[in-house]
Amino acid sequence: MKLKPFDLMAVIAVAVLAFVFALPILMQNGGASLEITTDTKTYTLPLDSERTHTVSSNSHTLILEIKDGSARVISHSCPDGVCAAMGAISSENQTIVCLPAKTVIRVTNADGEVLDGIAG
Ligand SMILES: [Zn+2]
User: What are the extents of the domains in the chain?
Assistant: First the structure.
């Protein structure tokens, strides 16, 4: 197959566009996301921001501290406090689990589905 000049331009244009669109995703991969699964929903927060975030699930409340690319439970209403004892997570697929609150917090590098509008 021989490429005509126009075809070549189109290929280059598509490649450049793909790169431009991929750039935010690539940069975002530098900072992983936090996938939070509660008893009613699953959502994602960026891990590279600095904030506290309240998780309400199964009549319990967990307060997450997200800081320096890691997350930990700093306050909890569950009786055992295992989630807080798990400490901070920062590497992909590390999890914090709170059984009483039916909550799983997991570090993910998956792109997309980052809902940045969620206020903590
Ligand atoms: Zn807990």
Answer: 1-30, 32-120
